[in-house]
Amino acid sequence: MNLRHNDFLGVTELVGKLDLQGGVVVECPTTLTTRVYGSSKMKTVRTLFRHLCLIAELLAMRVQQALFHRPRSFARSFDFNEN
Predict the structure, then answer these.
(1) What pTM, to 2 d.p., does this model score?
(2) Half-sphere exposure of 27 (CA within 13 A, CB side)
(3) What is the Cα–Cα distance from 26 to 82, expressed in whole angstroms?
(4) Angle at the Cα of 18 (from 10 to 58), degrees rounded to 5?
(5) Residues 6 or more apart whose Cβ sits within 8 Å of residue 61
């Protein structure tokens, strides 16, 4: 799988593309805590905008799959050579 992002968007892209390929996404609960020292380097508005752009790309991929994916014909979905 080709991933273009290796920053904050990397996990979002990975989960989105796995979902598009038919993978199963499960929840893994965790407890978040407040930062005690320092501050985040994340640029909130920029990261939010980039996530929205990525979601739009994933949506376009899903629409493309739905429009141009040809389901197998009914006859081909069975293996008539089975004993």
Answers:
(1) 0.68
(2) 3
(3) 35
(4) 70
(5) 20
Q: Which residue has the tokens 């989960």?
A: 15
Structure tokens at 69: 């994916």
Token digits for 77?
């979905």
20-40 confidence digits (pLDDT tens): 998 988 888 999 888 889 888
Say if CB 51 and CB 12 are below 8 A apart: yes
Render pLDDT for 39-54 as a digit per residue (tens, 0 to 9): 888 889 999 999 999 9
54 by Cβ neighbours in 10 Å (0-12 / 13-18 / 19+) ranks as middle
| For residues 1-23, average pLDDT | 90
Q: Give the residue from 7, 11, 6, 5 showing the smallest Cα distance to 42.
A: 7
